[in-house]
Structure formats: structure tokens, C-alpha cells
Amino acid sequence: YDEFRKSVTGYPLPEPREITLKIFTDQYEPSPKVTFMFSIYGLSVAHDVSRALPINPTKQCCEPRNRYQSFCKPIFLKPDDPFYSKFQWKCLGFRRTEDCNVCNTTKREQKNGVTAALDGSFIYGTNDHVAKELRTNDGTG
């Protein structure tokens, strides 16, 4: 239940960063069918209907003492990474999300921190506390 998925052969899956680098290139290929607003709309929908709740959000998963905790899956970067090598980054601290311990399933399901409705909760907040955090109340935004 707490183990990460493996390939059908039983070996670990490829590192997420390696997959990203193979799929996304620096080539700019504009689409004749959609504009950049297509991406903005998709992100808006995604952020409105889902919010993962991280386990131990204060723990740094790249620190040696936390790397092998069940809530961490650090993504180690290659020295020649085309982006992160410029900043001497060696690791991306990936943290697992809270699991749904009341879901009737044999597979791990994550909790959702927001409503599953398109209701603008990422703009207005999901409760009074979050709504207050989203506003400055000083006229600046």
C-alpha cells in the first residue's frame, strides 16, 4: 500500500525527470488549433477541482535523513540536467500526499483538499480561513 508502483517486470519505473526531458523539448511548436488560453483554462479547471494534501509538509525530502521516509520520494537530478544544473540543484524534494484511509480500495487513493466542483475555490477559498489568507484587505489586491 505504501510502496511505489513498479513496472510490469517488477523493476522500478523510470525517474519522472527522465520522462519529462524526453517528452518536453525546448522547441517551440505553436498549435494551429489552440492558443495559450487553452493551457490557462486547463490549469484553472485542474486547480479548482483538486488540491493534494502533502504528508509532513515541513519535512525536506532531499535531506539525507528524510530521503527514505515513507512520505518522501526524492527525484535525483543528473549533473547535466538542462535546467537545474545551472543552479547546482541535485534533487527535487517530492513528497507524497495524504492517503484516503477510509476509502474502500486495495489501491492507494489520495485525499482532495478542495471541492470537486467548478466553483472558483482556488480564487475565493474553500472556507473563511483560506478566503482571508487570499486577501490583503488593504486595497492592494
From TrEMBL:
An example Gene Ontology CC term for this record: extracellular region
GO MF annotations in UniProt: heme binding; peroxidase activity
Listed Pfam families: An_peroxidase
SUPFAM superfamilies: Heme-dependent peroxidases (SSF48113)
GO terms under biological process: response to oxidative stress
Keyword annotations of the record: Glycoprotein, Oxidoreductase, Peroxidase, Secreted
Alphabetized PANTHER family for the sequence: CHORION PEROXIDASE, OXIDASE/PEROXIDASE
Protein's name according to its UniProt entry: Major ampullate gland peroxidase
Protein's organism: Nephila pilipes (Giant wood spider)
